[in-house]
Each structure stands twice: as structure tokens, then as C-alpha cells.
Design a protein that fits this description.
Elements: H1 6-28, H2 35-55, E1 57-61, E2 64-68, H3 70-73, H4 78-84, H5 87-108, H6 112-143, H7 148-159, H8 162-173, H9 175-178, H10 184-199, H11 210-227, H12 234-254, H13 277-292, H14 294-299, H15 304-314, H16 317-335, H17 351-380, H18 388-396
């Protein structure tokens, strides 16, 4: 007869094993690693993922799927975009890591080409799997008679994360040129572009796309300045937070900029596509808050379980970012087999839809976990660690070439 206490012991054993694994990851992490950088990267990635899942809807209508957003019908939900549009923090971390890595590479005598190849390989390696899968999926949908509008909707959502990677890759490539650039210079470019677009209504239609580089260059150069030892005082962080918040409030309240920091389907203007001055000043406020949280984040990941969660996200950050829209669409497509489900296929036009969408988030997360397990090796690449401690670390942390690379 089985022992009656075996059942209750199983969860305890699982929890003990989880804590033991977390302690091993914590012990294998070098003391010189800046854990705040990893924590901020994880928060930025998860913010983008949750934001997309909450404000992007695939509505089943007229035999096809089209995108919609609860922000179209419920503008009072705009603060959701303030919480989850965290791209500025990711560019801040990207600039800091790239500048540190380049300085370390030069100190070792490595060439710029070798450093850039290593950076871009990890950044862009996961893209091939995404493009391959959606090329096959798009072809299959086309051959089975799926409406072209639906195929366009799915491909646009699935491939939309690529713009972010392309911008980050471009900024990484020009790190030697922009590492010492003062953030006020790209900020001035954004200001003048918006003045021409919205204030004077002059210039060609493509002029706004200058901000795609200039806008994200602002937090990127802030990160590079941080790597040089600048912006270390709390006064600097508070200045960014308060100044960015005040500027954004003035632009939204007095200059007519949209309150939503993400694009809304059907809208004539988007704060994000391309970035506007309001999106950039909002990003400055986010960067200030991130810098203020730095010390606390260094202490929080020092707890093994919390640090293990941070490491888990960072070990496949690009995979999570690239595949989160596909995970959402996979759940949506599978749900169609059961009919038109609320919060999944219905119009996002009421608080009831929001409640249903929140209930679907765990299933989206499960689908993303499957995608991560299937495709993360494309990001991490082949590894052959020699020792047990290095095996634990290399399994979960991004590759590092120096004590200062994060």
C-alpha cells in the first residue's frame, strides 16, 4: 500500500528542487555581473509582451481575421500603454551593454569586426527560424484559400518585432560613432522633425521616419553614457524622470499628441510608428525611473529564486520577443475550432472583453513557453561547457566575454 503522505511530499520535493536549481544558478553567476542590467532587460521584454497581448485583438469577422485594439473603443485604457510600452528601457540597456562590450573588446585587442559579429550573431540568429516558419505557414495559408487580408494581418503581426531588431542592430553597428554622442543631439533632431511635421506641416511624408533612428538613439546614447560612468547620481535619474514626465504631459495636454504610447489601428498618427517627440520624452521618463530602480534591482535579483526568474527570461530574450505574437495567434487560431470565443475573437469594445482577455493570458504564456522550448537553441547556439558550474551558468545566461559584459 502506498504511503498516504507521498502526495503531499511531491510538491515539497519539487519546490526543494526548484530552490536548489535557483541556488546553483545564483552561485554560478560571477560577482562582477551587473544584475540590474539583466533585471531591466527582463522587465522590458515582459512589458512589451504583455502590452501586445493586452492591446492587440484578432477579430473573427466576415470569414477572416483583422486586427483591432481596445484603445480604439476605450481610450481611457491609454495608461495601459504607459505601463507596458517599455522599448526605451531596452534601448537604454542595449546602449550600456554595447558600449561596455566594445570597450572590453578593445582592451583585449579584439577587432571591431569580431566584436560586431559576436553581437549581431546572437541578436539576429533567431530571426531565421521565424522567417522560415512563417514563409511555410504563409504559403500553406495561401494554397488553402485563406483570404489575402487575413494572411496579411497574420504576417504583419508575426513579423512586426523585426523592426525593433533591425533598429537595434543598426545602432549596435554604429556604436563606435555614437558611444560618446550627447543624447540632446538626437533629441533635437526629433524635435525639429516633429515641428516640421505637426507644427508647420512642411516636408515630405517620409520625413517622420528620420525619428525611427533618432528617437531610439536617445535612450541608446543614455545607456552608452551610463557605461562611461555618467548618470550615476540620483539627481540625474530624477531629472530624467521628472523632466520627461513634465514634457510628455505638456505635449499630450497642450500640443495635441496622443495619450496612447502605442499605435491604434485606424489612427491617423501613432506615437510609436514612427516615434514622436512625446514617445521620446516618455522614454526619457522611463529611463530615469529605470536608473532610480537600479540599486533596488541589484538587491532583488540577489535572492536566488528572483535571480533565476531573471536569468530564465534573459537566456532567451530575443526568442521570447520574436515569438510572442506567434504564440498569441496560435491560441487564437486553435480557439476558432470551438467557435467565436469572447476575449479572443470578439471585438474589444467593452470592459467585459478586457476581463476575458486577462483570462486568456495564461494560455498565451503556455504557448509562448512551447515556442521558447522549440526555438531558443537558435538564439543560444551550440555550447560545450566544461564544468558543472559553467554548465549551469551557460545554460541560462547570455554569453559573456568579459566581466563587464552583461
Amino acid at each position: 500500500m502506498a504511503e498516504p503522505t507521498r502526495g503531499p511530499r511531491a510538491p515539497r520535493r519539487a519546490l526543494h528542487a526548484l530552490r536548489h536549481a535557483a541556488h546553483r544558478v545564483d552561485a554560478a553567476t560571477p560577482a562582477s555581473r551587473d544584475r540590474a542590467v539583466d533585471a531591466l532587460r527582463a522587465m522590458a521584454i515582459l512589458g512589451v509582451v504583455l502590452g501586445h497581448w493586452l492591446v492587440t485583438a484578432l477579430v473573427a469577422q466576415d470569414g477572416g481575421l483583422h486586427t483591432a485594439s481596445p484603445l480604439q473603443h476605450m481610450p481611457w485604457l491609454a495608461p495601459v500603454s504607459w505601463l507596458f510600452q517599455t522599448l526605451a528601457v531596452f534601448f537604454l540597456v542595449g546602449g550600456q551593454v554595447a558600449a561596455r562590450g566594445l570597450a572590453s573588446a578593445r582592451a583585449r585587442g579584439d577587432s571591431y569586426a569580431d566584436w560586431l559579429r559576436g553581437r549581431l550573431t546572437r541578436l539576429l540568429r533567431p530571426v531565421a527560424a521565424l522567417l522560415t516558419l512563417w514563409t511555410v505557414a504563409g504559403t500553406a495559408l495561401l494554397l488553402t484559400g485563406t483570404p489575402l487580408a487575413t494572411i496579411h494581418t497574420l504576417l504583419k503581426l508575426a513579423l512586426s518585432p523585426l523592426w525593433f531588431l533591425l533598429v537595434l542592430a543598426a545602432l549596435t553597428a554604429v556604436t563606435p560613432l555614437v558611444a560618446r554622442l550627447h543624447p540632446l543631439w538626437p533629441l533635437a533632431v526629433v524635435l525639429h522633425v516633429d515641428l516640421l511635421r505637426f507644427g508647420l506641416h512642411l516636408g515630405p511624408s517620409w520625413l517622420g521616419w528620420v525619428n525611427l533612428a533618432a528617437g531610439w538613439l536617445v535612450p541608446y546614447t543614455l545607456g552608452a553614457a551610463r557605461a562611461r560612468g555618467e548618470l550615476r547620481s540620483r539627481r540625474s535619474a530624477w531629472a530624467l524622470l521628472l523632466g520627461g514626465t513634465a514634457a510628455t504631459a505638456a505635449l499630450v495636454g497642450c500640443a495635441g499628441y496622443l495619450a496612447s504610447m502605442v499605435g491604434v489601428p485606424g489612427g491617423a498618427v501613432s506615437n510609436l510608428n514612427p516615434p514622436t517627440l512625446a514617445a521620446v520624452t516618455f522614454g526619457l521618463a522611463q529611463c530615469g525611473l529605470a536608473l532610480l530602480l537600479g540599486d533596488r534591482l541589484r538587491r532583488t535579483p540577489a535572492r536566488p529564486l528572483a535571480w533565476a526568474a531573471v536569468v530564465l527570461v534573459n537566456s532567451s530574450a530575443m526568442t521570447v520577443f520574436l515569438w510572442h505574437q506567434t504564440a498569441m495567434m496560435a491560441v487564437t487560431a486553435t480557439g476558432l475550432l470551438a467557435g467565436r470565443l469572447p476575449g479572443l475573437h470578439t471585438a474589444p469594445d467593452s470592459p467585459v472583453w478586457v476581463a476575458y482577455r486577462l483570462a486568456w493570458l495564461p494560455l498565451f504564456g503556455l504557448a509562448l513557453t512551447v515556442c521558447r522550448a522549440a526555438f531558443r537553441h537558435h538564439e543560444q547556439g551550440p555550447r560545450r561547457p566544461r564544468t558543472r558550474s559553467s554548465r549551469v551558468l551557460h545554460r541560462h545566461l547570455p554569453p559573456r566575454k568579459s566581466p563587464h559584459h552583461a
